[in-house]
Design goal:
Keywords: Amino-acid transport, Signal, Transport
Radius of gyration: 21 Å
CATH architecture of the largest domain: 3-Layer(aba) Sandwich
Family: Belongs to the leucine-binding protein family.
Protein name: ABC transporter substrate-binding protein
Strand order of the largest sheet: 1-3-2-4-5-6
Distance between the termini: 49 Å
InterPro entries: BCAA_transport (IPR051010), Leu-bd (IPR028081), Leu_Ile_Val-bd (IPR000709), Peripla_BP_I (IPR028082)
Order of helices and strands: EEHEHEHEEHEHEHEHEHHEHHHEEEE
Strand content: 15-25%
Pfam family, one: Peripla_BP_6
CATH superfamily of the largest domain: Response regulator
Length: about 375
């Protein structure tokens, strides 16, 4: 049985103040299950931000109520919860979809009900083609491929091997990388896959290592799989540049893979991972610093990319509600689509009718792991 979670707060000055009017926001998050390393910080972030905003008086004098369900990463449960959020809980918008699978289930419900939905998952299919009520905060897998290939191109890498997870994220990014590789003069000469539940990927990596002409290796995937691939890569002493996806852009990846094995790994990530290295005039620095400080004080755990996706979704949604002047789904949707120059932890968002992501490649930072720490690639 899933836990029904609500976050409410009453602002009191001396004696208890009258209850504020409510704006009900829904969420279906994978707080437990195989994607918990993504969903747990997302849920904690949403609860923290709701508490903070209500302490300041809510939005236009109305209190925010978060109605959140834990879908365990199960698309069927996510669909059930999305339906409940719309029909029973009467929310005005939904944040969630920790994974691509759960996102697609929620998306179908939200679009049918014409309720604004902001996804926290990466696949390009979420917003391409554009759906009227669906937006998302993470960069797309296509953008991750492009950022990685830009770096390869700078380093005269033209032939690569890929080892991709067969989960929704891995399969989608594998397809997107194949689609854009020719644009960067890159040929994929070895193409292997693994099941996310596999405990050893040595066989696939051995094939890639033995493929003539391979100059670098790319691993589209998320979860524990890429950590195992990274350890196997080190054990085999492949000795070639190794790239991972933004799906593992967190300190947890370094911990699972081990700092020694992860040494030198490159991937596209967000400003949040290198907060201390941002320039003073970086437009993201104030929001990154504020979120990092608040989250780490509240939870006692390091801030990460995935919680940042939830932060940005909440920022986009509440900013739109404030500008719309009313908490009605259609008005909120229109206000989100009119958002421009809104700095979040993931990038600076500017949505249009044709673009429901609102980010370009400049939002990605190319990162490299050195000494167990994230560093910026110059």
């Amino acid at each position: 049985m899933k836990t029904f979670l609500t976050t409410t707060a009453l602002v009191a000055l001396g004696l208890a103040a009258p209850a504020l009017a409510e704006i009900r926001i829904g969420a279906s998050i994978s707080a437990t299950g195989p994607a918990a390393f993504l969903g747990d910080p997302e849920l904690k972030t949403l609860e923290m931000l709701v508490e903070e905003l209500n302490a300041k008086g809510g939005i236009n004098g109305e209190e925010i109520v978060l109605v959140a369900y834990d879908d365990n990463g199960d698309p069927n449960k996510a669909r059930t919860f999305a339906t409940r959020l719309v029909e029973d809980d009467e929310v005005v918008a939904i944040i969630g979809g920790t994974t691509t699978g759960t996102t697609m289930s929620i998306l179908a419900v939200a679009e049918d009900a014409e309720i604004p939905f902001i996804s926290l998952a990466g696949a390009i299919d979420i917003i391409d083609p554009v759906k009227p009520f669906t937006f998302k905060t993470p960069h797309t897998d296509r953008m991750a491929c492009q950022k990685i290939f830009e770096d390869m191109q700078k380093n005269a890498i033209t032939k690569i091997g890929m080892i991709s997870g067969t989960d929704g994220f891995g399969a989608s990014m594998q397809a997107q990388c194949k689609a854009v590789a020719p644009d960067y003069g890159i040929e994929i000469v070895a193409d292997e896959t693994y099941d996310p539940k596999d405990a050893d990927m040595t066989a696939q990596l051995t094939k890639i290592k033995g493929t003539e002409g391979v100059q670098a290796v790319l691993n589209p995937g998320f979860g524990q799989g890429p950590s195992i691939v990274t350890r196997n890569y080190k054990q085999l002493d492949v000795g070639l540049p190794f790239y991972q996806s933004h799906g593992v852009a967190s300190d947890g990846f370094i911990e699972l893979a081990g700092a020694e094995a992860a040494e030198g790994v490159r991937l596209p990530g967000t400003a949040l991972l290198v907060a201390g290295l941002l320039a003073a005039d970086d437009p993201q620095k104030p929001v990154v610093d504020a979120y990092k400080a608040a989250f780490e004080e509240k939870t006692g755990t390091p801030v990460g990319t995935f919680g940042g996706y939830a932060h940005d979704a909440f920022l986009i949604l509440t900013d739109a509600i404030a500008r719309a002047g009313e908490a009605e789904p259609a008005a909120i949707r229109d206000a989100i689509e009119a958002t421009t120059g809104l700095a979040g932890t993931t990038g600076v968002y500017s949505f249009t009718a044709e673009d429901h992501l609102g980010l370009d490649l400049s939002a990605f930072r190319m990162l490299e792991i050195k000494g167990g720490q994230w560093t910026l690639v110059e």
